[in-house]
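Structure first, sequence second, as always.
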């Protein structure tokens, strides 16, 4: 962005004088540099004004104070030497969830004529700004604190399903709560006697197994049975075995003709 024009301050002051209600400049000149980033983070706009303050956070930005804690910032519009951007600021003292589902009132580009600019801001910005402010205040009254996720209820029984290296999902029979066995049977788990375990065979496709496991977890948790998932402990590798050595060829004994002489 080019160096700020000397008429930026005069334009902001004249704009405040022509807006409806009691508007005034917050600073005689511009906000101190330490406040520039704070202002950029509060610009209530998802269009050119937001982009301008994010791309040029250190550019001078006059602030206008209005009724009912309303605030506007005035920004030189990049690459348009005879235009400004006027955008509302988010109100202070509210929490992030109070702005949820509230549409940004957004700013607009205005000419360097304060009277025409004030008419455009009054018609296109201030009504949306008031509506958004009312919505934020309503959210703050109805839900002062953020809607925290509730923790999981305590469970008296827990089932740990194990992912085995061969693709089978299951659990040793003795570790399966009695109340969970019917659910596992209903979700295609099978009892394997020679393994003494409930298993979901690897013959099912990946998507089918995912759906069956999801159904089992949903039904078990609905019954108050917690479900954990673990990978099986990898089997420890034994000592490497030596390949068998070939037996030495038998030597012909005396008096026995060799194969070559036969």
């Amino acid at each position: 962005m080019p160096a700020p024009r000397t008429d930026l301050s005069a334009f902001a002051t004249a704009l405040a004088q022509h807006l409806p209600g009691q508007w005034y400049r917050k600073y005689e000149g511009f906000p101190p540099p330490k406040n520039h980033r704070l202002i950029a983070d509060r610009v209530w706009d998802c269009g050119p004004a937001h982009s301008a303050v994010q791309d040029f956070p250190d550019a001078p930005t006059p602030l206008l104070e209005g009724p009912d804690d309303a605030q506007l910032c005035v920004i030189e519009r990049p690459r348009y030497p005879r235009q400004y951007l006027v955008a509302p600021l988010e109100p202070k003292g509210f929490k992030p969830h109070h702005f949820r589902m509230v549409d940004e009132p957004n700013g607009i580009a205005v000419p360097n004529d304060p009277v025409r600019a004030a008419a455009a801001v009054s018609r296109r910005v201030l009504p949306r700004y008031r509506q958004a402010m009312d919505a934020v205040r309503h959210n703050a009254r109805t839900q002062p604190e953020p809607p925290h996720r509730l923790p999981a209820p305590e469970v008296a029984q827990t089932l740990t399903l194990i992912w085995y290296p061969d693709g089978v999902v299951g659990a040793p029979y003795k570790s399966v709560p009695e109340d969970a066995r019917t659910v596992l049977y209903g979700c295609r788990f099978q009892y394997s006697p020679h393994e003494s375990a409930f298993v979901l065979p690897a013959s099912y496709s990946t998507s089918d197994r995912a759906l069956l496991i999801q159904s089992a977890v949903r039904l078990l948790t609905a019954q108050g049975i917690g479900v954990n998932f673990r990978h099986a402990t990898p089997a420890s590798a034994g000592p490497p075995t030596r390949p068998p050595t070939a037996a030495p060829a038998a030597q012909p004994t005396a008096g026995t003709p060799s194969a070559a002489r036969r």
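Margin note: The CA atoms of residues 256 and 262 lie 10 Å apart.
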